[in-house]
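pinning this so it doesn't scroll away 📌
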Amino acid sequence: MNAAASAPAGKAQRVLLRYSMFGAALAFAGPPIYIHTPRLYADQHGLGLAAVGAILLGLRILDFGQDPLLGWWISRTKMAKRTIAAIFASALGIGALALFAPDPILDGRIWLALSLAVVFTGFSGLQILFYSAGVSLAEQGGSAVTHDRIAGWREAGVLTGICAACVAPLALGAVFGDTVGFTAFAIIFCLFLAYAVYRMRDVWPVGGVINQEAPLASGLRRIFQDSGVRRLLLIGLLNALPGGLTATLFLFFVEDKLQAGDHAGPMLLLFFASAGLAAPLWSKAAARFGPKPAMLCGMLAAIFAFLWALTLGAGDWMAFYVISAASGAALGADMTLLPAMLSRRLSATGLDSAQAFGVWGFINKASLAVAAGVALPLIGYAGFAPGPGNSEAALSALAIAYAGAPCALKALAAGLLFMTPISKEA
């Protein structure tokens, strides 16, 4: 049993609030790590785009390769979930402090690789715990805690953390300067994460070790033998790749293609705020029309936004505000509906949620690995470099990588989802 089992509505609400706050703390690290780090190490620490891309690709391979292993270990260890959370949170906090240190102690490339390795391991462990706990809450929480309700609270917390992280580096940079501002951000993040882990101490599932004797390979084989889970994981991969590309290239597109660097922070905030505001609407649409039609509508909205972004040039920052709002609203569907579909299917089939969300983490990290490891070297090969002086061909390559490729990938994901039978129950 966990904290939400047979709980009255008031207690269930408090459990969901703590769960949501943990999601906010975990997501608070997101934009600086995934969006700002490539530009930060290229501009302030003198690393070339090809070097940054190669490091991120290598670390991402390690990162998404370890996710199934971490999911398997979490599902079979007798260690208390609160202890596991504390271990991974410590790793994430130490890694973040190292990543955003004003002056790397070692060579910039070595420092980036080491700090990201620690960050990714801590983040992966906490993310697997976070999502698998949501499945347990729904299974044991009664009618007051459903998969859709948990998804709404989870993504509301995640998007709140992301929005706060979009504002914090700008505000802290204005006070302390850009370099020290990121260090201050890392300190605030560590304090927030420690508090969230403390508040979650009574929410984690206790007892009932899952598949303690099951080998890793057999657990993964059972997951992939289920056609519904297999299809959802493939859709998740194709659908995550556009997000990985846009996250990696966002600052380059806004600052160099649109020449609107001063608007980057507000645009990011609008993007994620729109996702947060739209998320409950997508949940309601899924409850009324079914998750599949709602998800397809969100995918089509993202495709139209990508197509519009492909036509923009220098000075078109007003149009990009509209695109940020529209694509952010579409992101709300991605973040809310796909994990809820997977959670529902796992509950219906009785498959190991920790291992399954380890694979889910593998998929989402793979998208960022491809984006950083392929897109950055390719646009660099096309002649693009951060700053002024880029040719039209280089800027066109940037636009294709930022908007054209995501549009095609999103269309593939939508086509596969359209051909996949999905009901409201599983």
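📌 and the second one:
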Amino acid sequence: MLLEEIIERIWEINRMGITILIIEHNMEMVMKLCSPIMVMSEGSILMKGDADQIRYYKRLLEDYFGE
């Protein structure tokens, strides 16, 4: 699948010691690739942390806002 291929290429580049900034809406991909993760909205950082922290915070928002 194309997504797995993209993820593998990003990991290859990162293993070479290159830092990568990823701006992406696919949170599954972001959770696999990134640490730390920053979630932004309209130019402001809403949350920052590792994948587990972001998952927990996302659940709180969904419960609070009913999404």
